[in-house]
Amino acid sequence: MEHQIRYQRECDPAWTRQILSRPGCERLMSCIQCGTCSGTCPLSLYMDFTPRRVVQLVREGFRDDALKSQTIWLCASCYACGAHCPQDIHITDIMYTLKRQAIREGSFPKRFPIPVLAQEFYKMVRRRGRSSEFWVVLRLMLRTNPLGLFSMTRAGLALMRTGRLSLRRERIEHIDELQRALPD
Ligand code: SF4
Ligand code: SF4
Known about the structure:
Blueprint: H1 13-20, H2 36-40, H3 51-60, H4 63-67, H5 71-74, H6 80-84, H7 91-105, H8 113-128, H9 133-144, H10 148-161, H11 175-181
Helix pairs in contact: 8-9
């Protein structure tokens, strides 16, 4: 990742306080920047900011850098970082908090498939109570890489022929009860 100069005026301390109030993020300020989380993370090699840097960005209030980072989407929620953190900081929960906010604000990297997949999966589960792989993948591809559908057609047809991919859209009973529990 290219290093950029940052200025104090870009910080948003109110946003940091907001994140600190979220479940699992309370201990964020006790980070000693030891880097154990980054050394433990199996995916830090591929991230634009390592987990240690994400924690620091949040502490300092660099809202846009944190919310637009690809790191939060590459995080596989393996919990290795938090398990080794000497300060018992729940880094995975911080990643989830940032993901939720990035989805709410639409500030994730454009056409990046992981947040779109999360959105489509959630929408389908909220609407029907079940996820139907075919429809989730179709909507994901239409929003991120429509032309990629052509290259998937053959594999899709083969899966349908062997009964491993269905066009059926299931729906649970009393969906209204689930919808009351899940925010729109
Ligand atoms: S392991 Fe914990 S204390 Fe060390 S840098 Fe990561 S979050 Fe901070
Ligand atoms: S939970 Fe995410 S950030 Fe932590 S070690 Fe696993 S992949 Fe890395």
